[in-house]
Specification:
- The protein has 12 helices and 13 strands.
- The radius of gyration is 19 Å and the shape is globular.
- With about 280 residues, it is α/β, with parallel strands linked by helices.
- Helix content is about 45%, strand content about 25%.
- It folds into 2 domains: about 120 residues, 3-Layer(aba) Sandwich (Rossmann fold); about 120 residues, Hypothetical Protein Tm841, Chain: A,domain 3 (2-Layer Sandwich), CATH 3.30.1180.10.
- The protein starts with a helix and ends with a strand.
- The strands form 3 sheets. It has a 6-stranded mixed β-sheet, with helices on both faces. A 4-stranded parallel β-sheet has the order 2-1-6-7, with helices on both faces. Strands 4-3-5 form a 3-stranded antiparallel β-sheet, covered by helices on one side.
């Protein structure tokens, strides 16, 4: 078994990346739970994008999420570690989700029989996707776990995430954005810009129109990275045309190395709603 085969990458379903990347790098995903009232579904397993968006269009029940159980992580770690492999478990920001805590408790439960490292990405979505792929590539090249963790910490410190929702309904219900009402004030039809800062979502500005809000995503990314080479993703929930237009503008205006457009994970769309678009990047 080669060095790259000794380290297996685990993540949760808030992680966004092209399916081809996940298959190529053998990244294992533990599903977040999606709840509609008393009904609970495992993201990507017992509910898919189409069923989720159909459900929220037809139902008056507001969806919620909950972290994977400790047992789900224990089962995953034991299954993947039975051949002696070590496990690097990369998860959504622990400041907004209990997923890292579940993974840490599972790590304790499996004990010394399996070596597990839990890494708090302090982000989610494509930020985690890039981290998982970078870790897998480094492992395949023979990097040791300490080198990989240092690189993940570097990416974590450089990640830029800016997003704008189509409306405020889901943000208000989720309560995930600190100080949302203060930045909106009494303005009607304002389009907020939300940024990820040290693992927390915070208001970063507002725009008078959808087009101006999308412009701000690009402008704020340009301010953060300048002309440095970067990896980048545009992630959206049911806004493919606007996402593709923004993506083409980023390619024309930024020094992009590796990039993709993808759908938001359901577990993230729950909190931001249909029509949300995010621009996620980090200097390489």
């Amino acid at each position: 078994m080669g060095e790259g085969d000794r380290l297996k990458i685990v993540t949760d379903s808030t992680c966004d990346m092209p399916e081809a990347w996940q298959r190529e790098h053998g990244i294992h995903v533990v599903p977040i739970n999606i709840q509609f009232g008393m009904e609970t579904y495992a993201e990507g397993m017992t509910i898919d994008d189409q069923a989720f968006y159909q459900r929220i269009a037809e139902s008056k029940v507001f969806p919620q999420t909950s972290q994977p159980s400790v047992g789900a992580f224990v089962e995953t770690y034991r299954r993947l570690g039975q051949d002696g492999s070590h496990i690097l478990s990369i998860h959504v920001t622990g400041k907004l989700s209990g997923t890292c805590q579940s993974a840490e408790l599972a790590k304790r439960e499996v004990g010394d029989a399996i070596q597990v490292r839990v890494f708090d990405s302090l982000c989610g979505s494509a930020g985690m996707g890039f981290m998982c792929v970078e870790a897998a590539r480094m492992a395949r090249r023979g990097a040791d776990e300490e080198e990989i963790l240092r690189r993940l910490e570097e990416i974590r410190s450089r990640i830029n995430i800016f997003l704008t929702p189509a409306n405020l309904e889901y943000l208000k219900m989720s309560g995930r954005v600190k100080g949302l009402q203060a930045v909106l004030g009494s303005l009607l039809n304002v389009k907020p810009i939300i940024a990820l800062n040290q693992g927390l979502l915070e208001p970063a500005g507002r725009a008078r129109s959808r087009s101006k809000a999308l412009e701000q995503l690009l402008e704020r990314t340009q301010q953060a990275v300048g002309d440095r080479p970067l990896n980048l993703a545009v992630v959206h929930s049911r806004a493919p045309e606007e996402a593709q237009e923004l993506y083409q503008r980023t390619l024309a205006n930024l020094n992009v190395r590796e990039s993709f457009v993808d759908d938001f994970a359901i577990s993230l769309a729950v909190h931001f709603g249909p029509g949300t678009i995010a621009l996620i990047s980090y200097p390489v």
